[in-house]
Amino acid sequence: MVGGGRGAFIGAVHRMAANLDGQIELVAGCFSSNPEKSKLSGQDLYLDPARVYTSYEEMAAKESALPLGDRIDFVSIVARNDMHYKVAKVFLEAGIHVVCEKPLAFSLAEGKQLRDVAMNSGLVFALTHNYTGYPMVKEARAMVRAGKLGRILKVVAEYPQGYAITALKEQADGAISNWRMDPSVSGVSNCIGDIGSHAENLAHYISGLELEEVAAELNTFIPGRPLDDDGSMLLRYKGGARGVLYASQISTGDENNLNVRIYGTEASIEWHQEHPNELIVKFAEQPRQIWRRGNSYNGPEAAKNTRTPFGHPEGFIEAFANIYRAAGEAIADAILGNPAPIAGYDFPSIEDGVIGMAFIEAAVKSSKNNSAWTKLDV
Amino acid sequence: MVGGGRGAFIGAVHRMAANLDGQIELVAGCFSSNPEKSKLSGQDLYLDPARVYTSYEEMAAKESALPLGDRIDFVSIVARNDMHYKVAKVFLEAGIHVVCEKPLAFSLAEGKQLRDVAMNSGLVFALTHNYTGYPMVKEARAMVRAGKLGRILKVVAEYPQGYAITALKEQADGAISNWRMDPSVSGVSNCIGDIGSHAENLAHYISGLELEEVAAELNTFIPGRPLDDDGSMLLRYKGGARGVLYASQISTGDENNLNVRIYGTEASIEWHQEHPNELIVKFAEQPRQIWRRGNSYNGPEAAKNTRTPFGHPEGFIEAFANIYRAAGEAIADAILGNPAPIAGYDFPSIEDGVIGMAFIEAAVKSSKNNSAWTKLDV
Amino acid sequence: MVGGGRGAFIGAVHRMAANLDGQIELVAGCFSSNPEKSKLSGQDLYLDPARVYTSYEEMAAKESALPLGDRIDFVSIVARNDMHYKVAKVFLEAGIHVVCEKPLAFSLAEGKQLRDVAMNSGLVFALTHNYTGYPMVKEARAMVRAGKLGRILKVVAEYPQGYAITALKEQADGAISNWRMDPSVSGVSNCIGDIGSHAENLAHYISGLELEEVAAELNTFIPGRPLDDDGSMLLRYKGGARGVLYASQISTGDENNLNVRIYGTEASIEWHQEHPNELIVKFAEQPRQIWRRGNSYNGPEAAKNTRTPFGHPEGFIEAFANIYRAAGEAIADAILGNPAPIAGYDFPSIEDGVIGMAFIEAAVKSSKNNSAWTKLDV
Amino acid sequence: MVGGGRGAFIGAVHRMAANLDGQIELVAGCFSSNPEKSKLSGQDLYLDPARVYTSYEEMAAKESALPLGDRIDFVSIVARNDMHYKVAKVFLEAGIHVVCEKPLAFSLAEGKQLRDVAMNSGLVFALTHNYTGYPMVKEARAMVRAGKLGRILKVVAEYPQGYAITALKEQADGAISNWRMDPSVSGVSNCIGDIGSHAENLAHYISGLELEEVAAELNTFIPGRPLDDDGSMLLRYKGGARGVLYASQISTGDENNLNVRIYGTEASIEWHQEHPNELIVKFAEQPRQIWRRGNSYNGPEAAKNTRTPFGHPEGFIEAFANIYRAAGEAIADAILGNPAPIAGYDFPSIEDGVIGMAFIEAAVKSSKNNSAWTKLDV
Question: Can the peptide bond before residue C67 be classed as cis, meaning omega within 30 degrees of 0?
Fold first, then answer.
């Protein structure tokens, strides 16, 4: 693991997710650019001190020098946005598979370069757009693919959070959003980059549609902030579907209210992240349906990503663990020389990451241009 | 009543709403431009045949000639959009108060003319934007007015319906949407005009904010239709609040899913028309609150518009009846020469109607101009 | 109308319900045993003073002496429990049809006598167990009748309210529950009699099952009260189904939370009075279904009792109005000499009232006998 | 681990739960009475073959012979009901701490004997009544303890499942419920023993009330089954509170619908296992409150048992992991000689297990005695 030292929220989530099934073991890490903090984090995690590194370059060099079986099978990158490209590149060049936090990179340009590096390496590169890991999200995608929705006409993706309102009220910036509001670390966007991109990715994952252009307005409601804390946009998809997407961190009282609705000519579906075990399905002129996780009527994609029986709720960590499990299968196959399954692996790819970066930059550009329609430069 | 003959949905709703409290009695009408249909409708309603008219001009003339007390106190106009202006004008000029279905008129220009006529007449003019009649909508407005939400930052208004998808599937137009798709009757918009304007009005009623400009995209998904059946837009309110609004008739499986969310610096509120007896209130860092109709903790505005105790659900007709009751109070006061209450009457006014027309025309204009920001010409 | 003078909640509901469709007109009444109050109530309602009576005996005598067409077609009895029998008997004997509030009578013995009177009279007798008037309750019953649930195994009926907790907290009795706590007016039970009997009736209406015996415990939590304010019981139905029923007035924070669940071998259904426009249907190993009012997939029983389109919520008054409408049809047929429809009329009968009285008395008896199983003496 | 070999649902859950935080490592096991199956299960779990045992007696003997630090710190017993007593006794007598699946034992008599053994040993004994591990259940308990509900009057605990209906439909017994229907393995009850006891324990955990007696009816709807598949009962708690509890496996379409409602004189609370991140709180005459996991307004008990921020749902495995974490703390303290915290440890104890067994036997006895009130013999 690179990043994720003491006090980092997302690092702990990655470790729980990787740990859950007993198939992945954390054996080495560079948890902080501060050597002392990295060392202490390694102790917390019962690691061999010899494999707790003070720089990611050192880690990549020393681990790749170990014999296969002893060395790490892959690296998990949970450092800040501006480090993703650098760290991933070093490990890929050292021949080590990569699981990387989103966004893919600091900028679209960096993201495209990283795509080239990854493609040339032939190694596995998984991006943790974790919301795609939920079983009922997979069921939703399977429904779309099976044509149950007919032709898709409209997409509505929402991602309101309210946590930043505290900063506004206090006229002071809370710790959690600190580096996210710093353009030199976070990139050109805060809110759309951090959570808007999840909404975009989720809508894409379920619908299979390709986003062509956006007309966006990004807002900064908290005085003194250099980056957006809210944004809304109209969407045009290839093939004629239309949509609305918004994300916000100043939506007082909302928590992590990611929702997506996909409307087709035959049926529509609706999924709410805060009630992830249910998928609402509405066929025209039929009783509304609630598909629930763990039932025999769900398809193999959902079943494969389910750990507990119906009625025993699964949550965020389990969904996250599904990304690790799928990436782990791909990595194991690569290491063991197994052929990939015909249906491919089911985890967000570096291509999804490039689309995400193109989405963020298009939204920012549109907003600066008075919401003019702006194409994604994928 | 003018319009609302046999088979007309909204006419029957108006009659039930007016009837509910036993304070308004239907005594005369011109229910159809077809004299025979008008006559039969009058029979259905147990009316004196002498007061069932074959033209609205005749009705206005004959009724206004009757002595006060015998003549109608007001007219209820439930005819098609293109008739609103003509009918209302004739009755206002005959000295008769008016309750009128929305939209106010066929066009913004007509609407403004009608505003002049009404203003000059000094008579009561109520527009049945009925969703403002719900008690918990009134509670929501009272909360905003009392400053409980702090400064409002964001508005999200949604109005998806799915009924028109049947037309798309059958490639044939259903009866209900027939005249609504005819620009010579309906005006420049179908979906935004019919239901988008409800969402706009509701957001305005609760938030008190004035909408300044929109960036809209209107869509026509059903082939061969001359008017929109779907539309989405970004909103800019005076004072800096921002928003999103969309309305749709092709949202498969949705029924009458009007929702509005208002986000302030201190709290946010959320109201769903299909569960109208509840108002969701979210203060920052406090347990979520569900305010329910009929409780002692609700304010006088909600209490005044409540007929049954808590837990005994009220619905669409009761909300509609609240518009009639408030208009009825104003009309009674005008007829009896009572002074208006200091706080004013609580029903949608002709000014709301003009705003609605300006909203519809701005949205259509923006959409034709590739979603350019377009100001409301109120 | 007999009873329902100024300040009486249920009288006002009856009038709105009767009024809603414009088919029933209130023309005479005896609104209070207090002549002055009765007179003023009549004025409030714009009645002819000559038909506002000071005793129900006078009303029955004078009205029945009027020629058909001028006289009332039926009487609506909304007086207190101990008056139901006396008033109903007088009107039935005067040849006037009856709509009566529940419970049917002060005691089971009185109820059975009234059944004899009504049967012998050949007149219409409708009991306003109003919760059976909801469209989705009718849909539920139709599903059971159509065999969609298979054989019914289990019934769960709940009716928690919390309003009486205030009395407990204040150690003083609130106005609303005043006479209900007086055994000389209310009968042998307060809570089970007032609301438990609604739960029993609703479960019976939907399931079609006949309740055979109960094992009950009735509680009085508010000190100094002579009657129960809470009660729970086990149920045995004829044919082997089993159940649980409870009702409560001390369930803090609950409003009018009447719910019923019916479990069959093929499917189960669940209906919540506070969200009456939905019916939850669960088939084994299938996605959960939400049946919603006003849709084309609902059967004719629900459709007949529906006034507004899907998504336009109906509530308590509309359901109540459905009882009046069905009773009104039966009364009109009787007066006009029309044959009854083959399927019969759909309103709660005097037989339902007798079952209700037997249920109340069995529950009280069981509770006094340390919850011993006690048969209903229907 | 003892039990939980290939194909066992609950064994896998225990392992994920223990694994989640990276603080507990599975190092030895006897996974099946079938030596080959035990061995293969050990391979699946990457265990040292030398520590995969063919009998639990062997395991207890060999592990306790290892030096501290090398030997297992505790055993997790996930074998069938009839094995709990025997296995736990052997490990306790070998000086090894125990985490044990519920029910505590095959019978109340066995349970009491085991209590004596455990008490005398001075070792940690934790019972995995896992539903008490949910953060919002802990919040509920803290509210009750803080007196926010006032005096508790009523408890309603429900646990309907529907999975067994398939067996009824097929007239054949599904694999999952196989041994549960065998009295020689399961004990005197199936449904009440398996899930009714969870409802009893949860109500006790939150309310703090002691159950005194029950009036129960247990049913067997699936022909040919020797044990109950459904049961309902009235409850009397010490101190005057009353209640209702039912559990069912034939409630078609229900999944794992454990719910509990606690009504006090000041407020009531309501928790639904299938939506575990929310706690509904109803104060008299105040807006309903939804307390949500992960917020700053929750108390330390909930906070300590929370892994992800608000809005990032936690589920069944995380709740289960909280039992392991609390037991793990107690075991670590015991091994390290640390004093126990003043507030004690927060996991279900052997005393809870004895209460559970007394509950099961009282319910069965009452049912056989025509639902006579029957005291718990704790």
Answer: no
Provide the pLDDT confidence category of residue D71 given band limits of 50, 70 and 90. very high
3-state helix, strand, coil in chain D (%, to 5): 40, 20, 40
Place of tokens 């005009």: B193
Going by the DSSP 8-state scheme, the letter that residue C252 receives in this structure is T
DSSP string, A279-347: EEEEETTS-EEEEETT-TTS-HHHHHT--S-TTS---HHHHHHHHHHHHHHHHHHHHHTPPPPTT---S
Contacts of D313 in chain A (CB under 8 A): 273-276, 313, 315-316
CA distance B30 to B51: 8
Q: Which of D171, D244, D279, D370 best tests the C interface by mutation, with the highest count of C CBs <10 A?
A: D244
- Tell me whether residues C289 and A285 touch, CB distance under 8 A: no
End-to-end Cα distance, chain D: 29
Pairing state of beta strands C125-127 and C97-100? parallel
- Partners of residue D158 on adjacent β-strands: D246, D259
Q: Which residue of D has its CA nearest to C219?
A: D242
Give the single-character DSSP code of C93.
H
Residues making up chain C, counted from first to last: 378
Token pair 């000071």 in the structure block, residue? C54
Tokens of C181: 């706590």
What amino acid occupies position C2?
V
Query: Across the interface, which of C285, C287, C297 has its CB nearest the CB of A290?
Result: C287
- Exposed/middle/buried for residue A375 (C-beta within 10 Å: 0-12, 13-18, 19+): middle
Question: Edge-to-edge, what's the strand order for the sheet holding B97-100?
Answer: B74-77, B97-100, B125-127
The candidate with the shortest Cα–Cα distance to B241, out of B262, B270, B259, B271, is B262
Nearest CA in chain D to C246: D244
CA dihedral D347, D349, D352, D356 (to 10 degrees): 100
Retrieve residue D46's tokens: 């990457």
Residue A289: closest C-alpha in chain B: B253
Q: Do B169 and A373 touch (CB under 8 A)?
A: no
Q: What is the pLDDT of residues A110-163, one digit of tens each?
A: 999 999 999 999 999 999 999 999 999 999 999 999 999 999 999 999 999 999
Alpha carbon B299 to chain centroid, angstroms: 23
Out of C253, C284, C371, name the one closest to residue D215 (CB).
Answer: C371
- Across chain B, which has 378 residues, the per-10-residue mean pLDDT values are 89 95 95 92 95 96 96 97 96 98 96 98 97 98 98 98 79 56 90 97 98 98 92 98 98 98 98 98 97 97 97 98 98 96 94 98 98 97
Answer yes or no: do C15 and B22 touch at CB < 8 A: yes
What number is the ipTM of this complex? 0.95
Side-chain-side CA neighbours of residue D208 (13 Å): 15
Distance CA C23, CA C10 (A): 20
Going by C-alpha positions, the residue among B101, B111, B197, B127 that lies closest to residue B349 is B127
Q: Which two tokens stand for residue A182?
A: 């710093």
What b/e string do you get for D245-274 counting C-beta neighbours within 10 Å, with b at 16 or more? bbbbbbbbbbbbbbbbbbbbbbbbbbbbbb
From residue A179, alpha-carbon distances to A175, A225, C205 in Å are 8, 11, 63
Interface list for A 162-191 with B (CB within 8 A):
162, 165-166, 168-169
> Cα separation of B134 and B230, whole Å?
25
Spatial separation of the C-alpha atoms in residues A22 and A269, rounded to whole Å: 34
Specify the pTM.
0.96
Domains of chain C by range and CATH?
9-123 (3.40.50.720), 134-307+349-375 (3.30.360.10)
Neighbours of B, requiring at least 3 CB pairs below 8 Å, are: A, C, D
